[in-house]
Amino acid sequence: MRTKYILILLTLLLLYSPLTIAQKKSPKDLPPIFKKWLEEEVVYIITSLEKDVFLQLDSDRERELFIEAFWKHRDPTPGTPKNEFKEEHYRRIQYANSTLGRSAPIPGWKTDRGRFYILLGEPRDIERFSGEAEIYNTEVWFYQGLATYGLPAGFYLVFYQKGGSGDYVLYSPISDGPQALLTSYFGDQANYLQAYRKLKQVSPNLAQVSMSLIPGESSRFGRPTLASDLLLNSIQALPEKEVKDIYAQKFLMYKDVIEVEYTANYMPSDSIVCVFKDSPDEYFVHYSIEINRFSVHAYEDKYTTNLKINGQITDLEGKTIYQYEDSIPIELTEDQLHSITYKPFDLYDMFPLVPGSFKFSVLLKNEASQEFTSLEREIIIPEDEPNPRLSQLLLGYQQETNTSPNLKPFKLGDHQVLFQPNQIFLLKDHIFLFFQILGAGPELKANSSLFYDISKQEEPLLSYKKKVSEYGTDLGITEEFSLENLSPGTYWLTVTLKNGDRILDTKKEHFDITPVANFPRPWVFSKTLHPSSHPSYASILGKQYYSQGKTEKSLSYLERAFHSEPNSQDYAIALARVFLSSGYAEKAKTILLPFRKLPTPRYETYLFLGQAYLNLGEYDLAISVLSDAATHYGMNIPILNALGECYFRLGNKEEALAAWNKSLEMNPEQQELKAKVKSLTKNP
User: What pLDDT score does 133 carry?
Assistant: First the structure.
């Protein structure tokens, strides 16, 4: 059965922030084919971000993939074989070279007319003034219907043969003025009005355009206004407006991380990251990624894909503190497929995190279409709460009751909030506000109040207060606001925590009310996790503390997890690793020995148990365990190095050298091992 590719187009407003660009290389260092592409074929339509990224690529393969992505993100009909934008762009270049460069000593694409033709396409009308004694040969191009790009509804471009010879150059009402179009003007060069009057006697139509390129605009004080020059600048800046070029930065960031098939297929997305407290000591990072394009494979009557999630937490120095990956299989019926068409897709996820300042990144890949998107944030988990404060404010369009003990992203207590990262609401909507009060003891909460304010352009529209004691929960606070009396626009919601007249903390969050009657809310995939008492969270936090170098904290959490489920090989391995690094080899051996009896223990069980025997001086047992590891999982550097150390301590230098030399074949850059081998070879 033939598998066909289904592309679901979803509507979504996306906001982007500027990203820092690394140092760029020189175009002269590019191979000729890529230098021509950059400096000739796309020179007028490539954005500064795209160009800088392209100049940072290292190989021709990366450049080919980038060019594929460049055209793909300009394709008006993605998912079809034809790219109308690309075809039209190269047609314009061909026309510029064959027609507009005839009278020029340079290729047509380099001329002023060629540049604006490539940017704007065919004019609606061209009026030519040629062969006249009193004015230089001139062309007036008229454009209409480009208001969607921020240009006037109609405007002119003027090109003239400066001095009566050579190619046509772009005319500017301010820089050139009507005097530049006249073949014999001997008046004051700064007197635009005098030149305009003379030109009007010769050609009234050309005279009118000479003072303004925008129909209906009048000059002031006998001089052109800045509007025409601003128009010319806006046209040349069109590439920055026409394409969302954040894909280029993502290409550069992830080209060495994701499979080559994905690199050209960046999906625009919106996202939000919140930190909420689940218990007196533990914080969870909640996040959502919203994509406007979701693809599936069709096979018979099933529509499927698989989403791959790769998350990473690093400290500010770049050291990895936590990594995770997950796979989300999605299978839809035809009815379900139709119900989600044109809807955004939202992924909700969460995980626990230890205190510290971190960089957080998530890579989300769709295996059906080989597309990817990502989020990157900096987050802070406080060590303690010395002063009362408010968490981030979360604004939802819907609230559901969920009494299950299981954890879910953006669920605090019994309240589950549904939201969109762009925080756009309808006039008929209610806003469900979601937040926490942190670091406040019972006495402070009993005597504190919350002040709520909604404002528009600093004008207060709604204000009231409630006592904190009215909410009766420590997990989270929800408050509901009706929008029916508000008008479309941008608003700010402010929450202030006060104890008497003393302000303890204030948080603000903006939201938008759209004038449209309705728009599709996303279909949401929200992960369901174990209750907060589950030992998996203690295990995760213990591993994170270990990555931070906080061994005592790590042991505390990992022991808690292991003692909750002593039959878990995962928990045993994590605890044994920290025991070994802390000098507790006997403890590591004790917790791992029961798992040696399994039909096929995990590789780490073999390795850590062998290392525990080695550290305890039980070399024969260590060799037995490590040999079993090699039998089941193959030889690798850690096993070879440990085996070599066991043989060396047993006085079997020949076997030690054999193991270590094999390890050095796999990785010759082990300097300490090379020194040991060299010393042993000199002194057999």
Answer: 87
| H/E segment holding residue 542 | helix 535-547
470 and 408 co-located in one domain: yes
Q: Between vectors from CA 103 to CA 100 and to CA 105, what angle results, nearest 5°?
A: 100
Cα distance between residue 447 and residue 539, in whole Å: 38
Q: What is the DSSP letter of 219?
A: P
pLDDT (average), residues 338-351 = 92
> Residue 456 sits in a domain of what CATH number?
2.60.40.3880
Task: Give the span between the Cα atoms of 238 and 149, in whole angstroms.
Answer: 7
Tokens at 571, concatenated: 């928990």
What residues contact residue 585 under an 8 Å CB cut-off, 6+ apart? 579, 611, 612, 615, 616
Handedness of CA 160, 162, 167, 169 (dihedral sign): negative
- Domain end, chosen from 516, 532, 548, is at 532
**Cα–chain-centroid distance for residue 476?**
29
pLDDT digits (tens, 9 = 90+) for 181-233: 999 877 776 788 889 999 999 999 999 999 999 998 877 667 888 899 999 99
Please count the helices (runs of H) and the strands (runs of E) in the chain.
21, 27
Maximum Cα–Cα distance across the chain = 110
* SS3 per residue for 612-644: HHHHCCCHHHHHHHHHHHHHHHCCCHHHHHHHH
Q: Which residue range(s) make up the domain with 156? A: 123-238
Residue 21 pLDDT grade (very low, low, confident, very high; cuts 50, 70, 90): very low
Q: Please, where are the H alpha helices in 353-496?
A: 442-446
Residue 397 lies in a domain: yes
Contact 595, 568 (CB under 8 A): no
Which among 189, 206, 238 is the end of a domain?
Answer: 238
**Measuring CA to CA, which residue among 244, 284, 671, 215 is closest to residue 475?**
284
Confidence of residue 23 (pLDDT cuts 50, 70, 90): low
Domain assignment present for 253: no
Question: What does the pLDDT average to over 291-309?
Answer: 89
What DSSP string describes 319-385? -EEEEEEEEEEEEE-HHHHHHHTB--EEEEEEEEE-SEEEEEEEEEEETTTTEEEEEEEEEEE-S--
Which pLDDT does position 683 carry in this prediction?
Answer: 67
Position 38 in a domain: no
Residues 50-86: tens digit of each pLDDT: 999 999 998 999 999 999 999 999 998 887 889 999 9
**CA-CA distance, 352 to 277, in Å (whole number)?**
9
Which pLDDT belongs to residue 221? 64
The verdict on 672 and 540 lying in the same domain is yes
pLDDT tens digits along 470-488: 887 666 899 999 998 999 9
- 350 vs 416: CA distance, rounded Å: 14
Give the C-alpha distances (Å, rounded to integers) separating 466 from 16, 438, 443, 452.
36, 17, 16, 8
Of residues 175 and 682, more confidence is placed in 175
Query: For residue 261, how many other CB atoms are within 10 A of its CB?
Result: 13
